[in-house]
Amino acid sequence: MHVMVVDTDVHVVHDTFMKPDNMIVDYNIRFLCVPEADLADTSVTLHDIQAILLSMCIANTILIRHSLQSDLLALKVIHSTIVDMSVLFPHHLGLPCKWSLWNLMATTSDRYPGQCRLAQL
């Protein structure tokens, strides 16, 4: 998992990879853009990431991300002030359908998630 935190000026204040507890069966590079090599040298654990996030966030810190609820579940973190882009931009078919980040970015900007990283692979 790739964890990046930016401030209100969109400056990166934390950027790291976290090695999951279990073996990764499929890196799914097409969607996640995290190749095996990026995780090979990391020793950062779930507990480390939780401590980092808890030290950076206070109760009124606003967390913004696409499918943030899924990420918070994976990180085993509860936070009450969130903006989930998949909820902010609902799918025209309604729930349980959600726009993928790829489709959402394609319709609202001229960039795609992982565009720069994919070019490097």
Automatic annotation (TrEMBL):
Keywords attached to this entry: Exonuclease, Hydrolase, Nuclease
SUPFAM superfamilies in the record: Ribonuclease H-like
Instruction: Please indicate which superkingdom the organism of origin belongs to.
Output: Eukaryota
One Gene Ontology molecular-function label: exonuclease activity
Name of the protein described by the UniProt record = RNA exonuclease 1
Q: What is the lineage of its organism?
A: Eukaryota, Metazoa, Chordata, Craniata, Vertebrata
